Amino acid sequence: MEPVTLGLIGCGNISDAYLTGAANSKLVRFKACADLRPETAEAQAARYGIAALGIDQLLADPAIEIVINLTVPLAHAGVSLQVLEAGKHVYSEKPFAALLKDARAVAEAASSRNLRVGSAPDTFMGGAHQTCRRLIDGGRIGHVLAGSAAVISRGMESWHPNPDFFFKPGGGPILDVGPYYVTELINLLGPVTRVTSVATQGYPKRTIGSAGRRGEEIAVEVPTTVNGVLQFASGANVSLTASWDVWKNRRIPFELYGSEGSLLIPDPNFFGGTPEVTDRDGEWQPVDISAQPFGTPNRSLDDGKSVADYRMIGVFDMAAAIRAGRPHRANGDLALHALEVMEAFGRSSAEGRHIAIESTCARPEPVPEGTGEEVFLQG
Ligand SMILES: NC(=O)c1ccc[n+]([C@@H]2O[C@H](COP(=O)([O-])OP(=O)(O)OC[C@H]3O[C@@H](n4cnc5c(N)ncnc54)[C@H](O)[C@@H]3O)[C@@H](O)[C@H]2O)c1
């Protein structure tokens, strides 16, 4: 397959994951990057051997087919629209847009131009999550009746160099880390029909802890503890807690309860981990994920934990799908549906009622078993 040429807009913290992730790919190759801050683009360009361009120059380059949008959430929709207007496909970091109405405008612009939109997260395509998908589709825990998901911490201001966006519209735990859980749930269970929640704000200000800006304060503009419930078209009833107000907790992060057993799902912020499954009243058993690609640990976190981090496989799949003329998995319908669900958490709390979800989407096709990016050439 002729590799798909990529451009990148937004050369901040997460851009290394994409630029290193593409380094040995035969499906894609980065040509150029751009940023509002030209010096940031120049630094990444020098580091990865690509060109640093102005945003308009990058969008005018006819060789670039997909632009990866790694800007901050409030800029996602505007930059994605610019990319589509330039006649290129766009793949955006999460959330797909800060506001649902802007996400709809992006989806419409793509469809009217016959272009593709993709969006992170692509973690649901990782080895652990695809193994969970196969277990559920194979009936291992029977009909999924219920579940519980919890993503709980003290927040992001301690480590990120510029953590302001986490506490502004488009941020908050539901839109920042919620996408991993909501997208994985849609991958496993299908579309959501209604949402209810209570959303509160634990602290009005946050104090930055990272070296360059230590001690600066951020005014918090979004809820930082959300307790909600999602009802799925399948009938499943799943609770989701997302909070940045908690120092310590002992919640089990992610589990599903079926008519024939239960399934413990590894952290959907990463691609690997060991699922565990039980029969009705049997013992928990670890599940081997090695038949699926993208589950082997390849990176150590600051606390020494090894994780599988393959951010970029959504783009590999999209590139192969463009060449083959098939749908890609981390697609706009999925991202739009997930965003409507996430926005409904805030609306439900503010309006004091359940919110019916208008959009729907198909579950993305399972990733074929095999090794590495070649699986995307199979479909
Ligand atoms: N940092 C992470 O670990 C991480 C992980 C997964 C996803 N993400 C997501 O990736 C996105 C970016 O996060 P980050 O941590 O890299 O942020 P960041 O603040 O480190 O980088 C964002 C970059 O985008 C640039 N930018 C902002 N608006 C722009 C515009 N209109 N045009 C061009 N450039 C613009 C900024 O100058 C900056 O260099 C966010 O949506 C975030 O949720 C981040």
Automatic annotation (TrEMBL):
<dbReference type="Pfam" id="PF22725">
    <property type="entry name" value="GFO_IDH_MocA_C3"/>
</dbReference>
<dbReference type="InterPro" id="IPR000683">
    <property type="entry name" value="Gfo/Idh/MocA-like_OxRdtase_N"/>
</dbReference>
<protein>
    <submittedName>
        <fullName>Predicted dehydrogenase</fullName>
    </submittedName>
</protein>
<feature type="domain" description="Gfo/Idh/MocA-like oxidoreductase N-terminal">
    <location>
        <begin position="6"/>
        <end position="117"/>
    </location>
</feature>
<dbReference type="GO" id="GO:0000166">
    <property type="term" value="F:nucleotide binding"/>
</dbReference>
<dbReference type="Pfam" id="PF01408">
    <property type="entry name" value="GFO_IDH_MocA"/>
</dbReference>
<feature type="domain" description="GFO/IDH/MocA-like oxidoreductase">
    <location>
        <begin position="129"/>
        <end position="263"/>
    </location>
</feature>
<dbReference type="InterPro" id="IPR050463">
    <property type="entry name" value="Gfo/Idh/MocA_oxidrdct_glycsds"/>
</dbReference>
<dbReference type="InterPro" id="IPR036291">
    <property type="entry name" value="NAD(P)-bd_dom_sf"/>
</dbReference>
<dbReference type="GO" id="GO:0016491">
    <property type="term" value="F:oxidoreductase activity"/>
</dbReference>
<keyword id="KW-0560">Oxidoreductase</keyword>
<dbReference type="InterPro" id="IPR055170">
    <property type="entry name" value="GFO_IDH_MocA-like_dom"/>
</dbReference>
